[in-house]
Description:
It is built from 15 helices and eight strands. By secondary structure, the protein is α+β, with helices and mostly antiparallel strands. Among the domains are: 29-59; 238-313, Lysozyme (Orthogonal Bundle), CATH 1.10.530. A hairpin with a 6-residue loop joins strand 7 and strand 8. The longest helix is centred in the N-terminal third of the chain and has 30 residues, at 2-31. Mean pLDDT is 90; it is low at 1-27.
Amino acid sequence: xxxxxxxxxxxxxxxxxxxxxxxxxxxxxxxxxxxxxxxxxxxxxxxxxxxxxxxxxxxxxxxxxxxxxxxxxxxxxxxxxxxxxxxxxxxxxxxxxxxxxxxxxxxxxxxxxxxxxxxxxxxxxxxxxxxxxxxxxxxxxxxxxxxxxxxxxxxxxxxxxxxxxxxxxxxxxxxxxxxxxxxxxxxxxxxxxxxxxxxxxxxxxxxxxxxxxxxxxxxxxxxxxxxxxxxxxxxxxxxxxxxxxxxxxxxxxxxxxxxxxxxxxxxxxxxxxxxxxxxxxxxxxxxxxxxxxxxxxxxxxxxxxxxxxxxxxxxxxxxxxxxxxxxxxxxxxxxxxxx
Length: 339
């Protein structure tokens, strides 16, 4: 009987320790000085409720794996590695079928915004495989982890965390309910919260803009993003660069928005197809490759794609996939190739 009583008391004590310990552990995150400072700023600047935010952050689960992922993204690999990962037969075939499924909407958006349908589809293909891979991390967890445990980009992610809280409040969404990428990007187009609030639009009605499931909203939002970030209707994206003078690259800073005209680049020693006007703004695109850099000439629209994702590999993949999809559309999938 005494042994049984001792066991019972031991279990009760253990359970009591769990009860009194768990809330302390859960409360640790909201009581961190940096998190508390963020909460107080949101209360002061946006009239959030302090008690609600404390409770929310106490339910957040920090994700150390995210720090590993963001420290070695696919964009940091060389172009050939990136190309082989994102330009595949399946991505092309699925992109063609996605285009066919949404043909009328894409045609309307192309006419309205001047963005080629193939580019809109290619962005979704590279971002999330046309919506199949939208991410498995809770957005709140991802943004909180990066805001407070990733010093290199702390300011950026705290800004996005604040935008996310505003977004979920505006649309009456539970902050812990949305899932996205390890960087906190949301939906099929992988908009960061600031882009969601600024560029996401409803295709027809002024309802809640659903970037997870409403393909019409998704397509319209991508078109609006590109247009608002400088896309020029009817202008080219990229063309081959042939270097005719060894000195051609000395005065060029590659992979940044154009400051020179195509005529100036030709004068420096870059041979470009004569179909392109010398007045077009352009710059050199430099791609890392195992045997040395590869060079292309990017026009304004190439660098607009880089506003979506600053990686030159990303923009190149979107361009290449869109070009293949254009070919597939013309040939009705009969003879298009990723070669």
